[in-house]
């Protein structure tokens, strides 16, 4: 660092020499050319020997000055050359390697620090510009628990990834719910130079459960106190963030502030931007002790190694125990205890400029912190009202937040050039699989989709499920895109049991869905519906991937494999649970078929019984599903027999059979090679038959397909010849794979296909 400062002083001195020496020389010469207030020409042509003013001494003086001018010009030329060489080398040679460093606080200078009321010690430029190595890993810790916080933290991570230029290591203190959601999200996000480690928040509860807390964050709002104990012992420093933070700059700028810590400073905090700790918000308001306005803990810089040496654990515990004797509980969770410790030990804190935590709470004074958009570094939505908080500039802040909320996360999968990445087995396997594909193959895009990793956010909304005591519960499984969203309320009215849905959406559509769901009384009253977002990527609708995601995340022993545009009969949920017992599904390989019908009417008086359905079938109001366009798909169900059946009956597999079935949760997955329209269910039923599942039709069950506009994929199938050719190719390859896997028994599928 000292070398950099010396280099800059040399650079400045050389620059001044280049600029001022010629100027001073010319001023001197020009002034010396005046005698008696009249100019004297320096041109040799005008300096005639016969002039009365001309003398031998003045001639010698002029010649001496001209020689000196030429010497100065030559010196300037050499200096300019040295300066250009120094600029091209840059400061990296001071570090003994070729890794580039860059200043993290250029453009802020002393003026912004003074405006924020920060005393940063040395006010020289060299003291204010610590560097962060290009490939230095930045460590970030976040406490995250529950479904809502798991959703909020994604927006924070997006804002950090958008601006970052360094590798990142996230340390997530998470409960079981958040870990399941975020582990899947980051695994499928596959962002280069990002590492994730999880720490079990539930194991830490005993460390802080003795502290009564009135804050809405609950027990998890106290866990930042135990980070010195929780995080790895070899981790020296970390940035700690709340989930309701949005970054408007590179987080490396904040990481660089660690270099400014002096003496016993171990906590970097921004002053609280409300009067909370002044105790004047209302009558008898009695906050915890704090230094002045106190500090906000939404953004913390922790020097972990020094905190451990200071016995931080003992320090905060003794302080909390003493204050709780009179305060009884915390109002602002860990923030109250941090402030009480700082009140007793003010030397611990390094006060960060306020733009590192612009707080949008109800009583905020944050408007005094910024004058321009460029001042903003971190926005903190620390009000329970979040985006609805009152602030003069809230619309600007809200738009900035929404930018990252709806930003396509796939665009953040960018490499950090020049920085080595840790080996990722999943990424390497994916690249190997893709490299084996022939890009000149006309069906390349179809084949590629099979290996595409779609970013997946499980349990996008709150989910609760109480297992049935008799172990007969059934989950309805389906998938959908934005154009089928209107079916959700109707399905929830028809099916009271648990539901697992995979939704294929963009980031912006996911937020539209969230607003739709939160505005629906029907959907908000149902907590046993798992909504799993699979983010859009590629040109095909990955129908079987979606089904697999929904299947994989059910909590019941059985599942009803349906489609989103079908409404189950009223009472089907209870009927299926009884059928599971009756047909001993737990101990036999059975697929229970729910007969499918359809209507062409958008408004239908839904039949409440089998007798009413048969009447509507006879009247032409209902039809057996796809009887007029794809008879083979459901013909083996034997609707003629179903009309009079009173007991379950067995049917045999036939070519192109694709019924909707109830199976155990351990049934095989759908084949991902089939995307868009065509053969996606047919292949799955064929696999069930190959594994010797018995197909049994339920006599008193039914479902009805509701009309809708044709999907984009069926339109492509009908209009694009190459699409149909590729589907046929994939179908043949699937049948060959079946023969290799199941041997002689699978030959019937090839025979049946040739005969159909």
TrEMBL record:
Keyword Transferase annotated: yes
Keywords attached to this entry: Glycoprotein, Glycosyltransferase, Golgi apparatus, Membrane, Multifunctional enzyme, Signal-anchor, Transferase, Transmembrane, Transmembrane helix
Chief location: Golgi
Ranges annotated as spanning the membrane: 12-31
GO BP of this protein: protein O-linked glycosylation via mannose
Topology of the protein relative to the lipid bilayer: Single-pass type II membrane protein
UniProt-listed CDD domains: GT8_LARGE_C (cd06431)
Segments for region (Disordered): 42-65, 84-109
Catalysed reactions listed for this entry: 3-O-[beta-D-GlcA-(1->3)-beta-D-Xyl-(1->4)-Rib-ol-P-Rib-ol-P-3-beta-D-GalNAc-(1->3)-beta-D-GlcNAc-(1->4)-(O-6-P-alpha-D-Man)]-Thr-[protein] + UDP-alpha-D-xylose = 3-O-[alpha-D-Xyl-(1->3)-beta-D-GlcA-(1->4)-beta-D-Xyl-(1->4)-Rib-ol-P-Rib-ol-P-3-beta-D-GalNAc-(1->3)-beta-D-GlcNAc-(1->4)-(O-6-P-alpha-D-Man)]-Thr-[protein] + UDP + H(+); 3-O-{(1->[3)-alpha-D-Xyl-(1->3)-beta-D-GlcA-(1->](n)-4)-beta-D-Xyl-(1->4)-Rib-ol-P-Rib-ol-P-3-beta-D-GalNAc-(1->3)-beta-D-GlcNAc-(1->4)-O-6-P-alpha-D-Man}-L-Thr-[protein] + UDP-alpha-D-glucuronate = 3-O-{beta-D-GlcA-(1->[3)-alpha-D-Xyl-(1->3)-beta-D-GlcA-(1->](n)-4)-beta-D-Xyl-(1->4)-Rib-ol-P-Rib-ol-P-3-beta-D-GalNAc-(1->3)-beta-D-GlcNAc-(1->4)-O-6-P-alpha-D-Man}-L-Thr-[protein] + UDP + H(+); 3-O-{beta-D-GlcA-(1->[3)-alpha-D-Xyl-(1->3)-beta-D-GlcA-(1->](n)-4)-beta-D-Xyl-(1->4)-Rib-ol-P-Rib-ol-P-3-beta-D-GalNAc-(1->3)-beta-D-GlcNAc-(1->4)-O-6-P-alpha-D-Man}-L-Thr-[protein] + UDP-alpha-D-xylose = 3-O-{(1->[3)-alpha-D-Xyl-(1->3)-beta-D-GlcA-(1->](n+1)-4)-beta-D-Xyl-(1->4)-Rib-ol-P-Rib-ol-P-3-beta-D-GalNAc-(1->3)-beta-D-GlcNAc-(1->4)-O-6-P-alpha-D-Man}-L-Thr-[protein] + UDP + H(+)
Biased composition (Polar residues): 44-58
An annotated Gene Ontology molecular function: xylosyltransferase activity
Record-level GO cellular component terms: Golgi membrane
Family, similarity comment: In the C-terminal section; belongs to the glycosyltransferase 49 family. In the N-terminal section; belongs to the glycosyltransferase 8 family.
Stated name of the protein: LARG1 glucuronyltransferase
Source organism of this protein record: Scytalopus superciliaris
Gene that this polypeptide is encoded by: Large1
């Amino acid at each position: 660092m000292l070398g950099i400062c010396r280099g800059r002083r040399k650079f400045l001195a050389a620059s001044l020499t280049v600029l001022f020496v010629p100027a001073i020389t010319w001023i001197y010469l020009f002034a010396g050319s005046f005698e008696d207030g009249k100019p004297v020409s320096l041109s040799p042509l005008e300096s005639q020997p016969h002039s009365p003013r001309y003398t031998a001494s003045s001639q010698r003086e002029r010649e001496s000055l001209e020689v000196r001018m030429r010497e100065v010009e030559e010196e300037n030329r050499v200096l300019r050359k040295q300066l250009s060489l120094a600029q091209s080398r840059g400061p990296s040679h001071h570090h003994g390697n070729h890794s580039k460093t860059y200043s993290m606080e250029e453009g802020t200078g002393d003026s912004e620090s003074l405006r924020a009321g920060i005393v940063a010690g040395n006010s020289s430029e060299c003291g204010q510009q610590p560097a962060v190595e290009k490939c230095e890993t930045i460590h970030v810790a976040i406490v995250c628990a529950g479904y809502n916080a798991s959703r909020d933290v994604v927006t924070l991570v997006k804002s950090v990834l958008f601006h970052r230029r360094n590798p990142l290591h996230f340390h997530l203190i998470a409960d079981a719910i958040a870990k399941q959601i975020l582990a899947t999200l980051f695994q499928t996000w596959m962002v280069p130079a990002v590492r994730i480690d999880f720490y079990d928040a539930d194991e830490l509860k005993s460390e802080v459960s003795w502290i009564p807390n009135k804050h809405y964050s609950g027990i998890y709002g106290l866990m930042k106190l135990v980070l010195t104990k929780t995080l790895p012992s070899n981790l020296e420093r970390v940035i700690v963030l709340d989930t309701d933070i949005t970054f408007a700059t590179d987080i490396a700028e904040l990481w660089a502030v660690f270099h400014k810590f002096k003496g016993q400073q171990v906590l970097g905090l921004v002053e609280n931007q409300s009067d909370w700790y002044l105790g004047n918000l209302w009558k008898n308001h009695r906050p915890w002790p704090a230094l002045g306005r106190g500090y906000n803990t939404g953004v913390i810089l922790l020097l972990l190694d020094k905190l451990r040496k200071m016995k931080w654990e003992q320090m905060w515990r003794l302080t909390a125990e003493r204050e709780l004797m009179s305060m009884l509980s915390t109002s602002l969770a860990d923030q109250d205890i941090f402030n009480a410790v700082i009140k007793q030990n003010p030397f611990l804190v390094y006060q960060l400029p306020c733009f590192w935590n612009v707080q949008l709470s109800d009583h905020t004074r944050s408007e005094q912190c910024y004058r321009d958009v460029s001042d903003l570094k971190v926005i903190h939505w620390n009000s329970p009202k979040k985006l609805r908080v009152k602030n003069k500039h809230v619309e600007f802040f809200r738009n900035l937040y929404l930018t990252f909320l709806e930003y396509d996360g796939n665009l953040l999968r960018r490499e950090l050039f020049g920085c080595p990445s840790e080996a990722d087995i999943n990424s390497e396997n994916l690249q190997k699989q893709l490299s084996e594909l022939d890009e000149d193959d006309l069906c390349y895009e179809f084949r590629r989709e099979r290996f595409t990793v779609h970013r997946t956010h499980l349990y996008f909304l709150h989910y609760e499920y109480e297992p049935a005591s008799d172990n007969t519960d059934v989950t309805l499984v389906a998938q959908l895109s934005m154009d089928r969203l209107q079916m959700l309320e109707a399905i929830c009215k028809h099916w009271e049991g648990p539901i697992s849905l995979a939704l294929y959406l963009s980031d912006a559509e996911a937020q539209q869905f969230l607003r739709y769901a939160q505005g629906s009384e029907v959907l908000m009253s149902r907590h046993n519906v798992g909504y799993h977002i699979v983010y859009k990527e590629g040109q095909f609708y990955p129908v079987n991937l979606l089904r697999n995601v929904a299947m994989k995340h059910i909590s019941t022993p059985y599942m009803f494999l349906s489609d989103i545009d079908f409404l189950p009969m009223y009472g089907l949920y209870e009927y299926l649970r009884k059928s599971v017992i009756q047909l001993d599904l737990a101990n036999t390989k059975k697929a229970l078929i729910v007969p499918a019908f359809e209507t062409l009417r958008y408004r239908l008086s839904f039949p409440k019984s089998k007798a009413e359905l048969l009447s509507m079938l006879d009247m032409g109001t209902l039809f057996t599903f796809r009887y007029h366009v794809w008879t083979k798909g459901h013909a083996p169900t034997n609707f003629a027999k179903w009309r009079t059946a009173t007991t379950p009956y067995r049917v045999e597999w036939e070519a192109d059979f694709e019924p909707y079935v109830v199976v155990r949760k351990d049934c095989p997955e759908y084949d991902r090679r089939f995307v868009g329209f065509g053969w996606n269910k047919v292949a799955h039923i064929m696999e069930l038959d190959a594994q010797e599942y018995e197909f049994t039709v339920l006599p008193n069950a039914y479902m009805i397909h509701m009309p809708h506009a044709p999907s984009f994929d069926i339109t492509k199938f009908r209009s694009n010849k190459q699409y149909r050719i590729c589907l046929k190719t994939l179908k043949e390859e699937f049948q060959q794979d079946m023969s290799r896997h199941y041997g002689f028994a699978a030959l019937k599928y090839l025979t049946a296909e040739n005969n159909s």
